[in-house]
Design brief:
Blueprint (H helix, E strand, L loop, with lengths): L1 H22 L3 H13 L3 H13 L3 H12 L9 H18 L2 H8 L3 H13 L3 H20 L3 H13 L7 H14 L3 H8 L7 H12 L3 H11 L2 H29 L2
Length: 260
């Protein structure tokens, strides 16, 4: 009994020391703490230390956080703010790791991580490696779609649309992407679905409106292009952040000067 108590005390001391090192910006300590608290299912603490590691340029921690916020795991609620947070972590992961970020996401069960890494393999002539990742993407996507996950249906739809790892079937692609939006409320699916319809059509505007209302900044910007309503432009800026907003403002200025 005494030996167990001593072991617990030593563990607590080591844990405290790791936290101090993390606060002193030792990235490996932040990563270890993130993993430890994830394993212990103390997710609020895991988020804190993975975030610290991401800030200190650990790309894998950024990729983990992107996945967690995007899939609304660990008690994260579905919201436009959390979708934006997921995208910000994803951009940071890719900036640090390049295409390796997608491989890490794939290993976490992300069908899009597998699909994008397969695309990368194919682009650089590794067709065998590409097919391996496409197969993993298909397996993850099918399983998620069966579990009413919009991302899974969208990923599978994208694979059928482009013929990646499956026989190309654009009718099937449309139905899967439609499910991701209409049945499971996945905003990216609604945005992609809007592209199947002609400009200014009721269907296109309806799906853009859905995506925008669920926090997809590109959909809001596209709605502004379609309708010239400044409310959509302001929403796009609010959701996209300063860099995205500045880019949108350049197009708005160009359109006001030279017309559509």
């Amino acid at each position: 009994m005494l030996s167990i108590l001593i072991a617990v005390m030593l563990f607590q001391i080591d844990l405290h020391s790791e936290e101090l090192r993390c606060f002193e910006q030792v990235v490996t300590s932040c990563v270890r703490l993130g993993r430890l608290y994830e394993q212990k299912k103390e997710y609020k603490k895991a988020l804190i230390f993975y975030d610290a590691a991401c800030i200190l340029e650990d790309g894998e921690s950024c990729a983990i956080l992107s996945y967690v916020y995007g899939k609304t795991l660990w008690g994260i609620e579905k919201s436009s703010l959390n979708l934006k947070t997921s995208l910000e972590y994803s951009k940071r992961a890719v900036k640090i790791l390049g295409h390796t970020a997608n491989e890490l996401m794939c290993n976490r069960g992300s069908p899009f991580g597998c699909l994008y890494f397969g695309n990368y393999k194919e682009e650089y002539g590794d067709s065998k490696g590409a097919q391996t990742y496409y197969s993993r993407a298909k397996n993850f996507a099918e399983e998620l779609c069966k579990r009413s996950d919009g991302e899974g249906c969208l990923a599978l739809g994208q694979m059928y649309f482009y013929g990646k790892g499956v026989t190309q079937d654009r009718n099937k692609a449309f139905e899967l992407i439609k499910r991701s939006c209409d049945d499971f409320g996945f905003p990216v699916g609604c945005f992609i679905l809007s592209g199947f319809f002609s400009d200014k059509s009721k269907e296109k505007l309806r799906y853009l409106e859905k995506a925008c209302s669920w926090g997809h900044h590109q959909a809001c910007f596209e709605l502004w292009r379609e309708t010239d309503k400044d409310d959509y432009f302001e929403r796009a800026c609010e959701l996209g952040g300063q860099d995205i907003c500045d880019m949108y403002k350049k197009e708005k200025s160009f359109r006001s000067t030279y017309g559509k």
